[in-house]
Amino acid sequence: MYRKHFGLTRLPFTKELAVEDLFASASSQEIAVRLGHLLEMRGIGLVTGEVGSGKTTSARRVVASLHTGRHRVFYVQLTTGNVMDLFKSIAWEMGLPTERSRAALHHRIRGEVQRLCQEPRLRPLLIVDEAQHLRPDVLEDLRLLTNYEMDSQNRLCLLLVGQVELRRRLAMAVHEPLNQRIVVRYHVTGLTRDETPAYLAHQLKLAGTEQPVFEPAAVEAIFQATNGLPRRVNLLAHHALLAAALGKSRTVSADHVQAALPEIA
C-alpha cells in the first residue's frame, strides 16, 4: 500500500533484482576479487556469513560476471542428505544419468569434470550452498572429488557457502585434510554504517524515486537494529515504509522504525 503513497513503481526492498542492479558494497567487491583468484587457482574456497548477510547474492554476482565460453557453473543447495543425495544433485546439474552405486556416480562426475577441462577446455565451478548442513562424510567425499592425477592437478573449483558454524566445523581435527586445501576464505559482513544510507537510497532509486525518504535518525535506527545484514535491512525498511504510509508521513522517522521492529523479531 505504500507504493502509491511514496510514488514508487515497484516494491523497493525485494530480492528479485537483476545482477547489474545489486548494490556494490565493499564486502561484495572484496569477495569478487577473492573468488576471481580462486577461479584462477581452481582450488577450494569457503564463504561464510551470518544469516541474511548476502553470501549467495555475492556468489551470484561473481557467477554472472564469468564468461560462459571459459567457465561452467554447477549450483547445488540440497545439503541435508547423505553422500548419494548430494552426488545425485551434482549429476543432475551436470546433465548426467544417476547411478545406484556411490562409486559409479563418483566416477561419472569426475569423468565429466575431466571431459570439460580437456575437450571444450572449460573451467568447471561447483558451488555448494547451505554447506553448514553437510555431514562429515559428505564433506570428505567432496574433498575427494577434487583429487585428480594423484592429487597433482586442480581441475574442479569447489566453493562452499554457508553460515558461520561451517568455518568452526572445518577447523576441527577431523576435517584437517579439507581445511588445508582451502585456498580462499572470506567472511561476509554485510553493510557498514556508512554504506547503509547509500544502500537505502539505491533501492529506492531502483523503485522510481530519488527523494530522501529515510531520515538520518531512521537510517541509524535501521543499522543498529539489523547490524547491517541486508536481508534484515530490507525487511525492516519495508515495514518502516508501511508504518510511515499508515501515519500519512512523507518521510520515515526513527519512530516508524521502532514501530516496525516487532515485525522482524
Describe the structure concisely for a colleague.
The chain is 48% helix and 12% strand.
Keywords:
single chain, 265 residues, 12 helices, Rossmann fold, Helicase, Ruva Protein, domain 3, alpha/beta, five-stranded parallel beta sheet
Shape descriptor: elongated
Average per-residue pLDDT, rounded, comes to 95
Counting DSSP H or I runs of 4 or more residues, the number of helices is 12
**Using DSSP, what is the number of strands?**
5
- Rg over C-alpha atoms, rounded to the nearest angstrom: 22 Å
Helix-and-strand structural type: alpha/beta
- Strand arrangement within the widest β-sheet reads 2-3-4-1-5
CATH fold type of the largest domain: Rossmann fold
Largest sheet at a glance? 5 strands, parallel
Which parts are unreliable, with pLDDT below 50 for 5 consecutive residues or more?
none
Q: Helix and strand string, N-terminal first? A: HHEHEHHEHEHHEHHHH
Overall tally of domains: 2
In angstroms, what separates the terminal alpha carbons?
22 Å
The amount of beta strand, in percent, is 5-15%
Q: In CATH's first tier, which class of the largest domain applies?
A: Alpha Beta
> What is the CATH architecture assignment of the largest domain?
3-Layer(aba) Sandwich
Assigned CATH superfamily of the largest domain: P-loop containing nucleotide triphosphate hydrolases
Provide the helix percentage.
40-55%
